[in-house]
Design a protein that fits this description.
mainly beta, 125 residues, 6-stranded mixed barrel
């Protein structure tokens, strides 16, 4: 079973992303989203990220592309994410984003099911 790491686009720039169902939030390196709309969090929650405790003080609305398919999501901006399986990470795509866009992982084959992104029609109630 392997981690799923893919090259995606964030705000028009190539980025290396880990798709991680164990992460609730999506994280992105701040330098990739300098012009993205941002919002301050009045009571910052704390999370453990890569063995380090961080406070989520602000988030941004970022736009990206996975295999040419556009998505948008709220992301926590961080200075550095570290490495996974020898790849320097630019983003971690978390469970909330994957659920929002119906992105499914197949860790046995290392592939993504992007049917939700392709369909672009959702039922909400």
């Amino acid at each position: 079973m392997a981690r799923i790491i893919k090259t995606i686009e964030i705000e028009g720039k190539q980025a290396t992303a880990l798709f991680d169902t164990g992460a609730l939030y999506t994280y992105v390196r701040s330098e990739l989203v300098p012009k993205a709309p941002k919002r301050m969090i009045s009571e910052p929650p704390r999370v453990m990220l890569g063995g380090q405790l961080i406070e989520i003080k602000n988030v941004c609305l970022m736009e990206g592309r996975i295999e040419g398919l556009t998505f948008f999501t709220e992301a926590v901006m961080v200075d550095k994410l570290g490495t996974a399986d020898g790849h320097e990470l630019d983003a971690i795509i978390g469970a909330r984003t994957m659920e929002q866009w119906e992105i499914k992982l197949d860790p046995r084959t290392g592939t993504l099911d992007l049917e939700g992104l392709r369909r672009r029609e959702f039922t909400e109630y």
